[in-house]
Amino acid sequence: MQFPRVWSKARGVSPLLACVGVVLVGIGACQRDKLPTQSPASPVTKGLGIARSQSIVRGSHHVRPAESRFVQLANEIPGFAGYYIEAGSGQLVAYVKDSTKGFAAAAGALSAHLATDGLGLPPRVRPSTVRIRKADYDFQTLSDYRDIVSDSILGLPGVVSVDLDEQINRVTIGIETSKASQARPLVLDRLRQYGIPIAAVNLKQAARVLNMVAYGSPPVTKTRRYDSILESGSPDTLAAGLPYYDKLANGLCTVGAVVDSGSTRLFMSASHCTKHMFHLNGDTILTYLYGTLIGVERGDREHTGHACNIVFCWDDRSSDAAIFSFSSGLVPNRKGVIARPGTRSQLVLNAARDTSINSSHPWLFVRGTAAAGDLASGETIDKVGMRAGWTYGTITGTCVDVLFDNSDNGDGYQKTYCEAEADGLGSRRGDSGGPIFIWDGYDGATLIGTMTACAGSTGFYYRDPVYIVACTGSFFSYWSANEYDQGTFDALNNTTVGTPSVSGSLDGSGNPVLSWSAVSTTNTTATTTYYVNRSVWDASTYTWTEEGHYIGVTTSTSYTDAGPPLTMTSYAGGTQPAECVYTYSYYSVTAYNQGAASTSSVVYFQGAANGPYPNERVCS
Question: What is the pTM of this model?
Fold first, then answer.
């Protein structure tokens, strides 16, 4: 992990670089902000030459929090159609239809957002450049097409998903592979009937959308072959990532989060893990090991819509989530943590998984939750499931409408609006309901949702004595959608850490030395770790030699930089040397404890007066 950089006062947004057809823009880094209020106007883009669209973009007629940022940007940027993070380059790639006037202005607007609100993206994955691609369709057009498909075509035999696909500027329709030859002509015919251009649609083969409940897995009374701490479900402490058994549904699932609602302790998992999805049944919940009573199903909002085609009917809702209570004192539990397996990797369908809990670092600490609109296609995310362990993958769809086929267990069909889809994240039977999160690279996690269904390629993994269904990808419900359906909850770890107050000096060898007092902490007994970052300005070349470079970690209250790339001659405190005259470096120290982080103000060291303008004592 690299902590958010602290930029000097001389550092700002880079000049805009434009070219015909493609625009690249460099930006500075910034802190993560809350999702901005959706409105046609934004102060971020004022003064950038952005003309407000004549018609207000309103987006979908369904509730889709994941698209609120796209709606806002479509009202700021004429012809805007979405963005994603490009694999490999890490660039923000955005589609804009208005190429004659809008490319450079759109790039400037998006760069301004990255330098202020960050588009909600975490600093460690936030792009540094923006590239604009020409769109064939703007956001509102694709949104309208997608809603028609979702309302009138999704649910036809073989049609399992629909997505406003911001990576290809099309509406992508998922058709079950085994039914593609029958479904494809029917879908194309319906598209023509509704006046949707075939060119605006991408038809892809998809797997049947399966829930990942391990049915017929009753509690065990002794450890079986291949069982580990994570899979066994020890009742020592129940937390996110550990299994539970729904007695009424006769199924095994994974806890998504232990939460508080006021003074009431609860846990969240998937609605489809219960006897009837989108319906409160009061299911009895037990531990997987020994069958100890945990509690009962407490909340599962009824479906908000109902529809039928000529074959079957389905209920729909914004999320696949349910809330469960704890029976007082029977099973200890812990809020704000996720069980941490020993190995993090992408799932291979037929390979064994590490489901043992890391003995020295058994928990990941939940430090925040992310709004649905704060995620982007191309972003890396993580999951813990009781059977697949700790996996990671890449978001491939940020707002996919999904039709669940729960007919195998007699629960019919259900539809969720605006799920996210991730490839490589992987899932196995028993992973349903498990936590989806963004890992900070150390001990911290930002909770973004709960796992709902299988996606991608499917296969089987042999686990004596049965074969277990496995998938390379997963669908998941956003945390904000879960709260929309079930209420507002506190899922966070309550550890706090103070901010280091750093001072400096030079040792006998001329090396910068940083010192600080131990910071205060609350709700933790763990040792605080301090991470040191350095930036170096070379006045002779008028360039940055390093920017926000991580150089070391310590648990003590001092750090000596024994290898600075340029020689420093004095300590300057909190005052930045004149960049047109002096070479200088600056440092920051981040205190870190159980996912909680706090970064100091920067301190400066001054070097040689070797700038290109040595007679100037004040820099503009």
Answer: 0.84
